[in-house]
Design goal:
193 residues, Rossmann fold, 38% helix
Length: 193
């Protein structure tokens, strides 16, 4: 069972999904601590309501000082909107979800609605999400799992976002279960990173 530190910046929708899946037994993991870089993030309130230790911290050093007090296997970026640098002992253990099929619509500046607006502008008929290990470059770590969604010609960027988030709710827990089953090194070794 993976022991997770969860980093978030906003409403905690992904944390809600994780908690629901812990409850129904479909996610074999445990949240050790939740940290937000935004002091009044709704996700912190949700974490407290779920009974998880919850903290506000600015910057990698402050975040990593909190993580050091907990026994964690992976650091999960659940809507964390800053480039994060893990402590050296966890450098290969940071997992992120991106709202597109990497390598499309990814990298610095591509997050949230910006991705969905770019997908709409390009006229794509397929989008999706990618769960991947994170490194020091946005969206370049080894891919764990991808899920695609079909788009309609007249989907708005908001509708694209809703479809992709529904896929994320399935993909993120599934990816975490795969990491638990296969181990972290499997994913780094398969791409020679």
């Amino acid at each position: 069972m993976l022991k997770m530190a969860v980093l978030l910046s906003g409403s905690g929708r992904t944390l809600d999904n994780f908690h629901q899946r812990f409850t129904d037994g479909s996610l074999k993991a445990k949240v050790q601590v939740v940290i937000s870089n935004v002091a009044d993030a709704l996700g912190l309130t949700k974490a407290e309501n779920y009974g998880y230790p919850a903290f506000h911290a600015q910057g990698n050093d402050a975040i990593n000082a909190i993580i050091a007090d907990y026994d964690v296997d992976v650091i999960v970026l659940a809507g964390f909107l800053k480039l994060y640098a893990a402590p050296s002992e966890l450098a290969r253990s940071v997992i992120n979800i991106h709202p597109s099929l990497i390598p499309s619509f990814c990298g610095d500046g591509f997050y949230g609605s910006r991705v969905h607006n770019a997908v709409k502008k390009r006229g794509c008929l397929i989008s999706g999400c990618t769960v991947h290990f994170a490194n020091e470059v946005y969206d370049e770590g080894p891919i764990i799992l991808q899920k695609s969604v079909e788009l309609d010609y007249d989907d708005t960027a908001h509708e694209i976002g809703d479809k992709v988030f529904a896929a994320e709710c399935e993909a993120f827990p599934e990816a975490l279960n795969r990491v638990d089953a296969k181990g972290i090194d499997f994913f780094w070794d398969r791409v020679g990173a």
